[in-house]
Amino acid sequence: MAELKTDHLVLNMGPQHPSTHGVLRLEVVLDGEVVIDVIPHIGYLHRCFEKHCEAMTYPMVIPYTDRMDYLASMYMNFGYVEAVEKLMNIEIPERVKYIRVIMGELQRIASHLVAIGTFGIDIGAFTPFLYCFRDRERILDLFEMTCGARLLYNYMWIGGLSHDLPPMFIPELKSFLKDFRKNIKELNDLLSYNKIFIERTANIGILPADTAINYGCTGPVLRGSGVNWDLRKNDPYSIYDRFDFEVCVGKGEIGTVGDCWNRYMVRVREMEQSCLIIEQAIEQLPEGDVTSAIPKRVKPPVGEIYFRVESPKGELGYHIISDGTVNPFRVKVRAPSFVNLQILPVISKGYLVADIIANLGSLDIVLGEIDR
Amino acid sequence: MGILDKEFTESNIIITKFDDLMNWARLSSLWQMTFGLACCAIEMMATSASHYDFDRFGVIPRPSPRQADIIIISGTVTLKMALRIKRLYEQMPEPKYVISMGSCATCGGPYWNHGYHVLKGIDRVIPVDVYVPGCPPRPEALLEGLLKLQEKIRNESHVKKQV
After folding, report:
1. Smallest Cα distance from B51 to chain A, Å
2. Quick check: B35 and A16 CB within 8 A?
């Protein structure tokens, strides 16, 4: 008997879809329920970051960096101001360096909490989302206490910070860290080792290490495939070489190395490591003035720089070209989510429709950063 | 609108009581479309999450426009996205309400000057009931916007023909 001929079905997912994490459109080619191809269409949130930079002075660009990866605004500021400081050869006070690291790592925890919570929703678990946001609110309270904003901070300035830490910050932070350790354990019981969650994520969307490297993936997506690569260790910037922490990689104790579960678990473990870094930073935190090195006029010499940091999503690079005026000639951003998204068709082929959602959630993309 | 407008030309006790009942039911269960655009969507998520709890005002997220009463435009609307939002709005059943959340949705926000690609206000595409200012607005501000919308619904009339 001749085999039955099957037709391909093209299914449109997005731009309004609860699981696409914003305004991403996926064109899915299906054979029955098996995915043949996924084509991501981006550009629904294009906000023209680079064009805005050409029209702004250097400090005026900082609020626009906030709005790229709005889940990790502090880290977006971090990368940009450090790049401009390198370009201008500004030596910043020790206290500023430490506060930047504390804020950056808190932001990493907050970003991963959203990633984990929404991943849970995508898979069908609503409760962990509420638990994650409960903890995230406490981090946002700390940020709000410091700079007055909950989401988009404009906190790190070129040469310093907009405000010093308020007196209650350190005690509040310590009490948060103490509670948060317990909450991670709770989260593991609730979601990470949940039977249904494991069924949905383990052995799904396996990304081999060499493919991940070839596609330029970074961050938890790369480390989930077992590659030990973290810019905080491999190319230390700021003062990360002073802290003792380990780089979390996917170990494959459940599922296979490089699957959705391992990518997810890297984030959970990274939150613990961030707690460690923050604790060390609090102990070493020196006194000082945080605004003393802020230049009156930011006018870097002619030249260019590429500076990269390990943002919660991966390698975030700023390539700034200066022509000696107060406006940047060009600011190019190497956005981690943009690079990580291109792996989606590779890891989705051959799996079912529902697994696209799991794959997308485990990549943890932010459309503000992809479209810029 | 105006189911009984032939029979009742003026307000009387039956009309007002019926209106009150309908309005109370409507404003107490405003189902919201799960639709995030940009940064404000994260604050919208925070509003529906544990700390601020949108549910206590009867706002339950629905993934489909066919089941939604209210759409919150949360973030920068690009020209490419504006057409899709218009279509989503048209897919929603009556009565439907729109909250424009944040500066971007209201007037273009920080992308007002150089953003050739940004729609300068969602009210150029769909009618807006409540504007919530801020970049992004705090969850409290969004809740206030919702309460304002509920106030607006409370004063509507379904029986009398709307002028």
Report:
1. 6
2. yes
Tell me what percent of the residues of chain A surpass a pLDDT of 70.
99
Tell whether A13 is covered by a domain.
no
Closest approach of A122 to chain B, Cα-based (Å): 12
What CATH number is attached to the domain comprising A103? 1.10.645.10
What's the token pair of residue A356? 């696209």
Q: Mean pLDDT over all residues of chain A?
A: 89
In a domain, A126, yes or no: yes
For residue A138, the model assigns a pLDDT of 92
In a domain, A295, yes or no: yes
Please give the Cα distance from B103 to B109 (Å, whole number).
4
> How many separate domains does chain A show?
1
When CB atoms are compared, the residue of A51, A67, A134 closest to B51 is A134
Domain that includes residue A238, residue range: 57-336
Reduced to 3 states, what is the DSSP secondary structure of residue A12? strand
Residues of B in contact with A63 (CB under 8 A): 110
**CA A159 – CA A88 distance, rounded (Å):** 10
- Which 3 state secondary structure label does DSSP give B8? coil
Q: Name the minimum distance, in Å, from the CA of B154 to any CA of chain A.
A: 30
Contact A29, A37 (CB under 8 A): yes
User: What mean pLDDT is predicted for residues B35-61?
Assistant: 88
Q: Is A335's pLDDT higher than 50? A: yes
Measured between beta carbons, which residues in chain A are less than 8 angstroms from residue B135? 152
